[in-house]
Amino acid sequence: MKKIFQAPIAKPIYLFLLGASSVLGFAPYYLFPVSILSVAVLFYFWQMAANAKTAFWLGLQYGLGLFIIGIYWIYISLHDFGGMPWWFAGFVTFGLCVFMALFTASVGWLSKKSGALLWCAPVLWGVADWVRSWIFTGFPWLTLGYSQVPQSPLAGFMPIVGVYGVSVITAFLAALFANFLIAPKPTLIFKRNAIAAITLLLVTGGLLKAVEWTTPAGQPFNVALLQGNIAQDVKWSPDIAKSTIERYLAMIKLSDATLIVLPETAFPIVYSEEAPYVKDALQTYAKRNNGDIIVGMIEQDETKNPTSTGDYFNSALKFNAQGVQNYRKNHLVPFGEFIPLKSLVGWVYRDWLNMPLSDLARGGTHQKAMRLTNQQRVAINICYEDVFGEEIIRQLPEANILVNISNDAWYGQSYAAHQHMQFSQARAIETGRMMLRATNTGATVAIDQHGDVFVHAPHDIETMLNIQAQGFAGSTPYIRFGNWPFIILSFSSLLGIVLRNKTAKNIQTDALKFPREKINAL
Description:
The protein is an alpha/beta fold.
């Protein structure tokens, strides 16, 4: 290990590959021990680093490996489907990866500065993941805690402290392993304490996984999740809009499910412009099944100012015999659904990008769960809203079941859709509720309350996934308190480390002063 660390030319390559290896802990691979060991080796390198500056660069190299390999598919959406020139799409994707890697680098720098790296780094890692979830509207992809979903025993902590708390626990477990690498001849007491701590974490997490935080509510009911497999490069073409609608209506006609769910923007139209045709057809089928149909569509709101063209929303509309209810997406994708700094970068969209719906309005922060005909309540989330657990719980505990509608066709046949599905698995664990996902090309799945996928439709084909869903009632600790336990415990720990270091520094200073005072007195 020391020889690897001391090879200056090979070091960046080793760190890059080390970060890249951590991607194996995430979907579709789910090799959760790899992420733990990867972080453990990084902690070893940080501990052996000469100073904080060196730790920063090591963290940056690791982060570049993690994010370049982990989110390379951003390039596909920008170039293949967005029409951006290859060189600029590559530059933007690399720039995003560098920005994300700066968080890993900062954890190394601050941890090394603290003088208690193996205690400080796990907490800072979780805090960095949390900051990534809200800075510049948030992009918490490859948050360490997700690597433990759903098989790892550490996933058992998720209903209590959420994914960012699991990031801390995962990094702490890695720190314990790193101690074995650092100590050339660990003492017997050290070995016992480290093994006891590792065992305690794994056993406690395993026992927590067995806890049933919620209870079934109502009777199971039939659900049909539709996957239309509409090619992204023609999805918004006016020439095929009618055939797309007819395809989905034909699929709906074949189903007798109580709840039928279509993907995000399944109908490539503005609802208000096609309301009579769409509304009548969907309500007829919903009434026939004595159930509900949820469809993704663009919706226009003209109520704010009748004289204006109104705002456009990425919406999910529920149709049944009683009428129509909507949910409007609140957490929009930056540069995909709204344009930050529009006055400065608007030219990119005008000249280099062919990206529809890039300037939408936000729905309300607190929207009510949808009530189905069978009295179940559904918490809707659209696209990558399921990445934000603190936002999902806004509709809980009233909602009995979670539904995500997405269109990950933007990322081709990469593993982006699988990574996205893993976020939904985490939300199911945090809330103790089933998560149903209807997507355009995949991953269309049904996830149980423990985060396990029990039905998974093949990707990139037109299909209908028929499953039995069960609503659940009750609250996990995460539903009650959200991220606050993680935030309070993390910053309390960091404050304790700062105070400890300050006290130790004062004692050291006093010890150095004491001989001089004695000499002066003499």
